[in-house]
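[job 4471] stage=fold_predict status=RUNNING
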Amino acid sequence: HNDMYYFYFNNWGSCPGVDCCDSDAGCASCCFDAPPHPMQVCSNPYLTNHTIQAYSTPDFKTWTNLGVALPLTSRHPGIEFRPCVVYNPSTKLFVMWYEDRGPDESGYAVATSTEPGGPFQTVRVNVSMPGRGRVGDFNIFVDDDGLAYHVRTGFDVVRLDSSFTQVAEHIGSFVTPKPSEGPTMFKRNGTYYITAGTGCCACIGGATVYVLSASKPSGPWAVSYTHLQLPTKRIV
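[job 4471] inference complete, writing structure tokens
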């Protein structure tokens, strides 16, 4: 936006994480089931006191910390995950979608701000998405014609309304060869692409990444490339 790039991160605390599992199979084999080295409280991603931090850079070399973009006072209590921010030129607002998993929360939450660094203020909660996918990893893509799309694990593609804060219509679904998550949607040379990784959280060899392509956002989507990462050694 205006020759500047912006990045938004979950702030999970000031202390580093730990290698929580001694197994050569990697953290996925025991990290979430009585791990021998539990995560420190201040770096636990499943706490409810996390904020979202914003950074800007003009060249990916020089970075500026813009501070807290979404403070705790601007969202409902819950476990916050995966912020995704796009700019809406019609409303002149930056629109942030995020997960907020709390006792009274379901679906996604949406916040807006007039400035890229915030502060963002939550304007919608419990946004339910149509389709068969689950509430989980997602991505927002804005096309050249100004239409915005929400793609989520499951997998479903949903067109958003003109404000980018609500659902307009479910336009397509797709599957990957193996259960996957974390979709990202983009466009190159007139072709639409979605990448997704197999559900192998913290496994030693990483995950297989599928690349799907289509001539339009509604599909049909077909796997056009598979990058297979095989375990070779334990990563610490």
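[job 4471] summary: The first strand starts at residue 5 and ends at 11.
[job 4471] exit 0
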